């Protein structure tokens, strides 16, 4: 099983700055999701910035979430 999200910060350019349970850090770009179904609401940057960690993944108040495996596998990892 891949690590889960421990901490999230949402940036003004639709990126999620993530810290995973294994200590790795990564950035996940949500820009490609903004035209699809329930994710269209994330275009409102103030709503996008309401992202929080729930059960090891990132979620928003109206039940949008992103698979934690997707967040881990597709995020650009910070170089240490």
Describe, in plain words, how this protein is organized in 3D.
There is one protein chain. The protein is α+β, with helices and mostly antiparallel strands. The protein has one domain (5-77): NE0471-like N-terminal domain (NE0471 N-terminal domain-like). The chain is 14% helix and 34% strand. It has 2 helices and 7 strands, in the order βββαβββαβ. It has helices spanning 45-48, 68-74; strands at residues 5-10, 15-20, 25-29, 52-54, 57-59, 65-66, 76-77. Strand 4 and strand 5 form a beta hairpin. The mean pLDDT is 96.
Question: In summary, what is this structure?
Answer:
14% of the residues lie in helices and 34% in strands.
> Which outline best applies?
globular
Supply the CATH class: Alpha Beta
How many extended strands? 7
Total tally of structural domains: 1
Strand content: 25-35%
Unreliable runs, pLDDT <50, ≥5 residues? none
**Largest sheet: spatial strand order:** 1-2-3-7
- Separate helix tally: 2
The CATH superfamily name is NE0471-like N-terminal domain
CATH topology-level name: NE0471 N-terminal domain-like
Helix content: 10-25%
Structural class call reads: alpha+beta
> What is the succession of H and E elements?
EEEHEEEHE
Outline the secondary-structure elements.
Elements (H helix, E strand, L loop, with lengths): L4 E6 L4 E6 L4 E5 L15 H4 L3 E3 L2 E3 L5 E2 L1 H7 L1 E2 L3
Antiparallel strand pairs: 1-2, 2-3, 3-7, 4-5, 5-6
Features:
3-stranded antiparallel sheet; 80 residues; 34% strand; NE0471 N-terminal domain-like; single chain; alpha+beta
């Amino acid at each position: 099983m891949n690590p889960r999200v421990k901490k999230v910060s949402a940036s003004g350019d639709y990126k999620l700055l993530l810290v995973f349970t294994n200590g790795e850090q990564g950035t996940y770009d949500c820009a490609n999701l903004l035209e699809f179904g329930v994710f269209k609401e994330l275009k409102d940057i103030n709503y996008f910035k309401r992202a929080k960690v729930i059960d090891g993944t990132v979620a928003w108040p109206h039940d949008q979430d992103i698979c934690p495996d997707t967040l881990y596998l597709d995020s650009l990892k910070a170089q240490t």
